[in-house]
Design brief:
This protein has 160 residues and is mainly α. Helix content is 80%, strand content 0%.
């Protein structure tokens, strides 16, 4: 086999591994660092590629659903060590969505309000099932998400 063919096969193999990593990273949770990092980079790139504010908001809202699912999954799997960063990512993204809507997309407020209200119910359920009789105090970060979401909902309800 010639060197040129070996290089081509090597490049094809690297591309296949990279493509598979991108596919598998979509379901990665924060407790699996390599794929999680790849997933976050991919999300940031996709967000930057959104030039239309409406498309950007839609993508951010879908990411918020994913963040809530990750937080719920971590509590259900008792992977408590990742609650703080997950809760922070969730509340930060919800705040960015609120800022975007209140700044120049007031017509989108009803949809975001509905999403936040449904997320509030899920966060409250997560908070209820989180064990509070241990040394693990990360449940307070879920409580923070609930409080932030209520603040963001109040802001959105004022412009509705």
């Amino acid at each position: 086999m010639s060197d040129k063919i070996k290089i081509q096969l090597g490049l094809i193999t690297i591309l296949i591994i990279f493509a598979l990593s991108l596919v598998f990273s979509q379901k990665a949770n924060p407790d699996f660092s390599p794929l999680w990092s790849l997933k976050r980079v991919q999300e940031k790139v996709f967000l930057k590629l959104k030039s239309n504010p409406s498309d950007k908001l839609d993508y951010m809202r879908s990411l918020l659903d994913i963040r809530l699912e990750e937080l719920n999954s971590q509590v259900n799997r008792q992977s408590y060590g990742y609650i703080l960063p997950s809760a922070q990512r969730y509340s930060t993204l919800a705040g960015e969505i609120t800022d975007l809507v209140t700044a120049n997309m007031k017509d989108k407020a009803p949809q975001v309000i509905d999403q936040f209200q449904s997320h509030l119910k899920v966060l409250q359920q997560i908070y209820v099932i989180y064990p509070k009789n241990t040394d693990n105090l990360e449940y307070k970060y879920i409580e923070d998400d609930i409080n932030y979401l209520k603040i963001y909902l109040d802001k959105l309800l004022q412009i509705k």
